[in-house]
Amino acid sequence: MEEGEIEVDSIIPIGLPDVTPQLARESGFLGVVDLLKVANHGKGRNIYLIRFHYLDRRGTRS
User: CA-CA-CA-CA torsion for 33, 35, 37, 39, nearest 10 degrees?
Assistant: First the structure.
C-alpha cells in the first residue's frame, strides 16, 4: 500500500448477534469464528462496526 490516509466513515455500536457470516466476509474473514479470533481481546465487552476507506496521497478514494 502506498502512502495515504484512512478516513473513517462511521463508528456504530453493535451487538454480538449483528456479527453475521456476511459481515465477517465483507470484513475480509472466512467467517464469524475467524473474525472473533482476531477481534476478541482484552476485557472489553463493547463491539463497534467501523467503516472506513483509504485515500491515496492524491486524495483518491479506494
Answer: -140
